[in-house]
Amino acid sequence: MVDDAFDALADGHRRRLLLSLLTHNPQDVSTGDGLHWEIDEAGDELTRKYHVHLPKLADYGYIEWHREDETVVKGPRFGEIQPLLELLDDNRDELPDGWF
Which Gene3D superfamilies match (predicted)? Predict the structure, then answer.
């Protein structure tokens, strides 16, 4: 369980999505508006978004990914990672650049 949380947070794209769900649920992942995916929508990162990042978070149960309308909502295990996300969010100014 702890390993799942740290693995989910190991990538900046996944961190930003999970943090955004603290205040905005659901999230539109078709454009990444507000998520700062920093993805070239025609490149390899787009493939990773749909074939690595979103499936991984869904497999862990942190999100539910509704592919047909390209939205995500908090998943059944989101509550397990929420205290860690809140700790990160509350300490944004103390963390190194690139975390958000």
Answer: Winged helix-like DNA-binding domain superfamily/Winged helix DNA-binding domain
Lookup: tokens for 72: 């995500």
Question: What is the C-alpha separation between 23 and 25, in angstroms, rounded?
Answer: 7
CA distance readout (Å), 91 to 40, 49, 84, 87, 96:
29, 26, 11, 6, 10
The sign of the CA dihedral 83, 84, 86, 91 is: positive
Instruction: Dump pLDDT digits (tens) for 71-86.
Output: 999 999 999 999 999 9
Q: How far is CA 91 from the centre of its chain?
A: 18
So what's the pLDDT on residue 41?
A: 56
Instruction: Spell out the domain ranges in the chain.
Output: 2-78
28: CB partners within 8 A, 6+ apart: 70, 71
